[in-house]
Design brief:
With 99 residues, the protein is mainly β. It has one domain. The chain contains no helices and 8 strands. The strands form 2 sheets. Strands 1-2-7-6-8 form a 5-stranded antiparallel beta sheet, with no helix packed on it. It has a 3-stranded antiparallel beta sheet with strand order 3-4-5, with no helix packed on it. A hairpin with a 5-residue loop joins β3 and β4.
Length: 99
């Protein structure tokens, strides 16, 4: 998976595809919820890393425009700790279900 974003927005579009270029690692937590693990904390000065991962859950469904296509509700990732600047975004959790 890689995150693609517009420099003017804090909403990124995750694209899942095979390959190994510009990858963003994802994981499932103990509740089978999809997250992006982070080992870095830049909310403090100086920025720190203690070697332990924090599970970030910033998934939304948003109306997006990407490469000439308008997506009405697509999975999106919000960069940073603030709210999405895209007013169409709705908070969601992505849950893994075994069938």
């Amino acid at each position: 998976m890689s995150l693609f974003y517009n420099d003017a927005s804090n909403v990124a579009i995750p694209l899942f595809y095979p390959g190994d270029s510009e990858q963003t690692y994802v994981a499932f937590d103990q509740n089978n919820v999809l997250n992006i693990p982070s080992y870095f904390d830049d909310t403090v000065v100086p920025p720190t890393s203690d070697g332990n991962a924090t599970s970030l859950h910033r998934w939304y469904l948003c109306q997006n425009y990407y490469l000439g296509y308008n997506y009405l509700k697509s999975l999106s990732w919000v960069l940073g700790i603030g709210a999405p600047q895209n007013p169409s975004c709705e908070k969601v959790e992505v849950v893994r279900v075994f069938v």
